[in-house]
Specification:
alpha/beta, 5 helices, Rossmann fold, disordered C terminus
């Protein structure tokens, strides 16, 4: 195995440098969640839990860094395999299930340190994640979203109430830049404890 001891030399003075106690959970491994997990891996987080029941579709590939041959592959397995090409020492737990099906496992897998990043694309799922993670388990939480247009959401206070209906974002136009930007802003906001409630609004 290669010596990775110098990879993080330039970020050692930043609070974002990992310790062995961090365990980060990403719920929803689509456009935003994929880049959240990749960014956390590049930060040096030693443990990741990835949750998503879906497989890769052709329409996902304009914002996910995967080859066309991976169409049909489980999103969490694809993300695990991609991250391991970058950091093969990260411990990654893949849960190809709905969040509802993962709740009991999470209470066992979580460590006291780390965040749950909610990157799902429907209001119902966002509400479920927030209720369980924050209200029931009192675990650290960050919601990161991108509507495909002009707005990025980063919040520690629960699901947003703007511009969403029960159908979520399934047919919203999207591209790689928006997803990567949302992921980067979400993790930056978390590191600096900044609540970017609805970035992109024009001040009144």
């Amino acid at each position: 195995m290669l010596d990775n001891s110098h990879i993080y030399d330039r970020q050692k003075r930043l609070r974002s440098v990992s310790t062995g106690l961090y365990c980060e959970t990403v719920v929803g491994c689509g456009g935003v969640g994929t880049w959240v997990a990749i960014t956390l891996a590049l930060l040096g987080r030693p443990r990741l839990i990835l949750i998503d029941p879906d497989g890769i579709e052709a329409s996902n590939l304009n914002r996910l860094p995967y080859p066309q041959a991976w169409i049909g592959k489980s999103k969490v397995e694809a993300l695990r395999d991609f991250i391991h090409t970058l950091r093969n020492d990260i411990q990654i737990t893949t849960l190809p299930y709905t969040f509802t099906e993962c709740k009991e496992l999470l209470s066992v897998l979580w460590s006291p340190w780390g965040q749950t990043y909610c990157c799902t694309d429907t209001v119902a799922s966002q509400q479920e994640v927030y209720k369980y993670v924050v209200l029931e388990q009192h675990h650290a939480y960050t919601r990161i979203g991108y509507d495909g247009g002009n707005h990025v959401t980063v919040s520690f206070k629960g699901p947003p109430v703007w511009g969403e209906d029960e159908g979520g974002y399934h047919d919203t136009p999207s591209w790689s830049g928006g997803a990567m930007c949302a992921a980067a802003l979400g993790i930056l906001g978390n590191e600096l404890s900044i609540d970017l409630a609805r970035l992109g609004d024009t001040p009144s």
